[in-house]
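Reviewers of the previous submission asked for a worked example of the structure-prediction workflow described in the proposal, so we include one complete record here. The input consisted solely of the amino acid sequence. No template or homolog information was supplied to the procedure at any stage.
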Amino acid sequence: MKWPWGIVFWSFHFISARAQVFHSAVKSAYLTGGAYSAHFTDAFSFTVNPAVLGEEKTFRVAISSERRWMLKELAYFQMACSYSAGKGGMGFQFHYTGNSDYNETALAMSYGKDLGRIAIGVQFRYDIYHVGGYGNIKDASAMPGLQLHLSEKTYAGIAFNISFFEKAGNHSAEKAPGIYRMGIGYEASPYVFLSVQFEKEAGIPINIIGCLDYRWHDQFFAAVGLASNSASPYIKAGWKKNNLAIGIFTAYQVTLGFTPGLVMLWEGKNKSG
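From that input alone, the workflow returned the following structure tokens.
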């Protein structure tokens, strides 16, 4: 079971020596540490590591909207759904950010399969970057993922992006950057979950994201977190009634300010009972 960690640490070391050569897709401020758990997942979790779909047992839908640094021109909208498919699960994601002058659109499809103490998954994604007056730049990528069930309460995983296009667009010799992720999560109790994620993007130092999630009797949920690269604290809180949950979240960057957001989560009945 040591070989996955050897691969990811070697990859982090190798990629750190290469420069980033192409703008990567904008990321949502909504944290998804549940990708490294079994009971703290939501419909967005597979966007970090598709292997989490291996334990999907219900149908879920999520919609979120945020305004990056309080600028309407940088509004970010995303939606996702996931559902059980045999001994695994399927997931679909859409996101849009920007305005008429510059915007980014992405579509992704993911599949994960449970193999016992190991789950595997893969995501296929298509991105379009639109610049007013200059046309579109397109990119397609795949993200293989692996999740390990280390103990009754501990999960870990790795995932990395592979670009299918050698060049980003027809008029540029730039290559899309590689992105490598590793995470570990600990379910301290049915109400408390701790996670740490390591993200390495070409040309950028490793970003360490720590998060503490709390649930109260399956009605109230909250989380606090911190991203090391930008020293950005994160807060999330919400309320669940029956199958619908509504929450608010915000991240803060010292120089740029707040990124507020709203998320709605719907979850069907667990098929396993």
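Residues 1-20 have pLDDT under 50 and may be disordered. We consider this example representative of the routine output the project will generate in years two and three.
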